[in-house]
Amino acid sequence: MNSGELLVSNESFIRVFIVIAYVPLCLISSRLLFPGISPSAKGLGIGMLALQILVVALSEIIQPTSIFEERLWTLDREFNIPSTFSSTQLALAGGLALLTASLARARPALFRLYLAGLGVSFLYLALDEFFAWKDLGSSRTWKINVSILGAAIVLATTLLALRSSRRARIWHLCLLTGLALVAIAAVVVDDLPPFCGNLGFIVLEDCLDYRIPEEIIEFLGIWLSLVAMLGHFSEATRRSSARVQRMPYALPVIWIILIFLVPLIPRFEMQLLAQAAAVQFDKRIQLKGYRIDNEGRGTFILRLYATATAWDWNHIGRREVGYSVHLVDQASGESFVSRNKLVRPQFEILIFGAQYEPIYREYAAFEIPPTTPANRALWVVLTLWRQNDGEYERMKVLSSDLKLLSETQVVLGELVLPANSPAPSTSPLAQFANGFSLGAVDLPQDARSGENLVIPFAWRSNENGREDHAQYLHLGYVSPPGEGGGVEGGSESVETGAWFVYDQEPLGPRLPTRLWYSGLADSETWQVPLPADLAPGLYQVFTGLYRMRDQERVSAIDAEGKPFVDARVPLGFVTIRSVAP
Length: 581
Description:
The chain is an alpha+beta fold. 35% of the residues lie in helices and 26% in strands. It has three domains: 256 residues; 142 residues, Immunoglobulin-like (Sandwich); 148 residues, Immunoglobulin-like, CATH 2.60.40.2550. Strand 3 and strand 4 form a beta hairpin.
């Protein structure tokens, strides 16, 4: 460095910029703005400016001892102390505009409508400033939308200023100046590349980063907009009581309470509407609840409620952590629907501390392809993953109260896609007490031992299934081949007491009865393997249902309402022949 040159660091330049920005603002405000507002409004304006200077100064003075503390005070980051204060200033300006619109009843309706529009706009910007909605979509789209909103406000303000009194024009001018500073910061300064050259005799120690100056200019613009609203409020309440004039002091408190209540909504929603879960993944992420809404054959909606420390959830990478959801056929293991999704940027509440654990809610709608088969039990399977050096790593499940398909796959629930059902039969073979009915059975006349006995069963459900049932098939020996005795009898026709028993789910493993729905009509052809040593002869065939949890049979009645003995439905007789030599 040559003599006469001044070496300046990036931090020193920012501190000088703070002084250059705030000293003239304080002088101009004391001479031009504060004399025109009421003492109560002046105190609020001065207080907000003092807090703003304090927040900006602390963000530069504090030497963070951790990455978390640095994030907590950095001016150009969200969900921290500076962004909370910036949002509160915007909300105060919006609240003042709405309050003034309601109190200035002597002013023209057009002016009051203008103030109401300003109030809604400022409140929207306050929410966006705090919750970072702009991060959810395209930055370019956000800038275009905000620019359109700003242009509309500028146009309306200019037209009103031309028709206003000289004393009122100063507040319109103050608002336009504030909006101009915000626009310059957001649209111009924010897009400037780092400057790495020299400024005359000033030699920069490192490249000049414009992010902090951009935030300071935006802070100044917001404060000038706030002062403009204080001016309008003072004009509207000049003859009001002191109590009315002090009402704006409650607005920042109300706003801060509201924005910190918003993150509690997922917690309340989880407790009221979600199904509880306790699934611990690595990275200290835990699934606390979920909800699956089947919207029919076309769509199902999944809501996940997870918890992790505010720092861990976002620090491991907002654009790196995601989850996969699959619809898996329980019988075949085939996946019919698959979707991968990154977690959304979430409100972190960093000022509560690095170890605070909010509830994070993830929402996703899944389109089910029309080729997905109906009347099949489907698992909803969840996998968490993160990107690491371009590779996708599945997060291991450390503990779970839900069923696991593997060490990384959690079964959240199950669903079935309903099929179009024909009209119910007017005379079913058997009506069971749980709402299921069995249609007429076409029993074959004979079969061979060592081969399969083929029996089709047609089922219908008039109620939603609630638990698992099994269907049994009993073959009771009646007589040797050729004798034919007891064909007309009931269960008493079984002479020797020899039985062949076979059980399975009524529609097989593809659709357990717990997933049957009201209106279901489906059939299953049983392939019953007969033992090779099954004695040949005439057998009477019975069927029925029993609950798997306690092995109790489900009572049934015939078409005339007569109950079946022992809850066994007789199907007829079949002749078992020996294996051909």
